[in-house]
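User: Hey, my collaborator sent me this sequence without any context and asked if I could get a structure. I don't really work with proteins. Can you help?
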Amino acid sequence: MFKKPSWYRILLGPAIMAGISAVCYRVFGVNATTAGFAYLVGILVIAASWGLLEALVALAVAMVGFGFFFLPPVGRFAIADPENWVALFAFLATAIVASHLSDRARKQAHEAKSRQAETERLYELSRAILLTGTTGPVGFQVAQNLARIFDCSSVALYDPGTGEVFYGGPRNLPGIEARLRRVATDETSSLDPVSGLLIAGITSAGRPLCSLALAEIVLSENGMQALLKLVAIAFEGVRTQEASNRAEAARQSEEFKSTLLDAIAHEFKTPLTSIKVASTSILTDVADISPQIRELASIIDEETNRLNLLVTDAVRIAQIDANKIQLEPQLVAVKDFVDRVLEDLKPRLDGRRLNVTLDGGLPSVSADPDLASMALRQVIDNGLKYSPPGTPLDVSADADAERITIRIRDQGSGIPKSERERIFDRFYRRQSVKDRVPGSGLGLYIAREIIRAHGGDLFVASTPDFSSEFCLTLPLRKDSCRP
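Assistant: No problem. I've predicted the 3D structure and written it out in structure-token form, which is a compact way to encode the shape of the chain:
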């Protein structure tokens, strides 16, 4: 943006031409050629220093002085020789072309300096944005930096995330808050050429980040777009950092929860061990106890086993939830592994029948017996909870060249196709049953994580309104063998 020519320069140019005329004619008495060069040099200096308009006004006075003082008849506003007319117009054309070129060079130099200053300011703003911290609102820091770096008389920045408007610069813009809020929602931008007020909405991936008002800022179109992108980077950077901080806090929380549960589990296991020893001693070492006491001791013994198992599972779940699955694989016979799980679940059956079909020739697999048992227990427990009381559960297993598949079929209502993957999401519970069946929504998620850590998978095949079959696969290892 260039300033308009001032009147004193328009008047000073002719005065300079008059002075050249006086010096050349009165003092030195030079000829027409020398005088023409003197005029031309003066016009070029004016064009290069002030601009084309000033140079053209000075050129008009120079032509009059050149014709009056140096072209015959001297001292009269007339030219007798046609050759002098040619010389006069040659001088005019030369002066105009030279003035235009000189003025264009001046403008290009001015634009280059402006672009350099603009680039330096944008670079300074980018450095300030890189140093923007989370100690204060990002909107306040950006507004202050814009006012300082670009010499804006007023800056206003609206952050939709907090609903606040932040200001920078020595003066405020009346009524700007409502306009900024409107721009943030409809994503329109406007520039008032009279007041020089720019209002722009800034978005990222279709999501509004902020809206910005700048008063009396001088920037090219490309420079303005770069400024708006830098402001967007500032907001995105701070929000990314905040998200990273939240993720780190969540990770530390998960680790703390895992450590706390582990400590609590060890505290629980000490009295549980004592209770287990006491109940076992009553059942095996004490003679002549009444049937009622023996029954109560048996209940204590069974429930102690169950409570001990629940405590161990709680610790395992916390470790898995904190992504701390540590496998301790062993060669496990599938039939022994399934029988162990079914034995642990006997107290939960309430008289329900388990139809178990296991091929005695199933190969062994390399698995962590505790974690694999926990996964299978979670799946069977899920079938017990979501199928009608009194209905049987079918447990079977088969093998092919690559894997062993353990199938658990219940007689429930089935799972819609749209929910067959979602039931394995953490904390997800089906809308149709979550109010009737207690649970946390973690069982199937934990089971799948364990099985996938082994290199297998857990999925469901369901017939709507009839039953669900959960398939748990474990890959065969090279060292697998027939029992």
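In plain terms: Residues 420 and 472 are 14 Å apart (CA to CA). You can pass these tokens on to your collaborator as they are.
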